[in-house]
Every structure is written in C-alpha cells, then in structure tokens.
Specification:
It is built from three helices and seven strands; from the N terminus they run αβββββββαα. It is of the alpha+beta class and 171 residues long. The longest helix has 19 residues, at 152-170. The protein is globular. The structure holds zinc ion (ZN).
Length: 171
C-alpha cells in the first residue's frame, strides 16, 4: 500500500467525469487499498479516486468514530437510487478543499447500488451522515465539489484563497 498525493481545488483534474470500472480485479483492489490508506493518513472519512488523480468510479469511506474499530467501505460504480424528498443539512468538508467547511443540504436518505471490494453487487440503504457522505463522494465522480452547492460568492472566495496558498507553497 502507498500513500498518494491528494489533489486540491482549483486543480482542473477534479472537474473530470470519472469512468466506470470494467472489472474489480487485483489492480483495482490495490488502488482501493492506496485510497484507504491515503484517506486514513489525511485524515478524512471519504475519498474518491479522482482525488488522487485516477478518473475511475471508485469511492472509499470509513465513518467509524475515533474509539471504534475501523470499518472501511468500498464502492465501485456506485449509483444513487430513490433519493428522499426530505433533506438534511450537514457541515461538510473535503480533503480537496482543505480547511474549509460549510453547510450543504442534500436528500436525507437514498439507496446506493454498487460493487464491493470483491466485485459483488450490493444495495445499501443510507441515511444521516452515511447518505450525505455517499452523495458528496458521488459528486466527485461527476466532477462536482461540495463548494459548488454554495453561493458563487463563497465558492469564489475559497478558491481564491486556495490558489493563493498554492502559489505561496510553490515559491
Ligand atoms: Zn470531497
């Protein structure tokens, strides 16, 4: 396993639409292992493959609390079904938008159809933080960031700040 570099906004690679995975094989499992390790190290609770520069429809996640056993989840080619009409609001953050958090409203519940680590088809009923996290990561597969759900003013402000920090870091 290896820790990979996480791409941060406004890097245009984050705007790519990720491609479906043809087969869950050892190569893909190696990528998922790297993604999980990278996410734990960051630390974060979810990571999409495009965040480490791989435009594939793959997500890893772990919502276990600090005192709980790790409980990694892997989603290959995920699809969201039946998003609920009722919504909930969570304060979201993103490893690709460091040190910025804001509230986003999303459907409170949904179902997720996906292939797991072994390539078996699964259907998950998600609500609460899990539903929010799945939808946040699914957005990455379409090239969408959580800041896209905020006002243009807020989005431009955070992108400008990140650009400036990246410029300073490069000097
Ligand atoms: Zn994110």
């Amino acid at each position: 396993m290896a820790i990979r570099q996480i791409i941060t906004a406004p890097d245009t690679r984050l705007r790519q639409v990720s491609k479906p995975v043809a087969q869950v094989d050892d190569g893909l499992r190696a990528l998922m292992d790297d993604m999980l390790e990278t996410m734990y190290e960051a630390p974060g609770i979810g990571l999409a493959a495009i965040q480490i520069g791989e435009p594939l429809r793959v997500i890893v996640m772990d919502l276990a609390g600090e005192d709980e056993e790790p409980s990694p989840r892997y989603f290959v080619n995920p699809e969201i079904l039946d998003p609920s009409e009722d919504t909930c609001v969570y304060e979201e953050g993103c490893l690709s938008v460091p040190e910025f958090y804001d509230e986003v409203e999303r459907p409170a519940k949904c179902r997720v159809k996906y292939l797991d680590y072994k390539g078996n088809e699964q259907l998950l009923e998600a609500e609460g933080l899990l539903a929010t996290c799945v939808q946040h990561e699914m957005d990455h597969l379409e090239g969408v960031l959580f800041i896209d759900h905020l006002s243009r003013l807020k989005r431009e402000r955070v992108l400008k700040k990140l650009k400036k920090e990246q410029r300073l870091a490069a000097e």
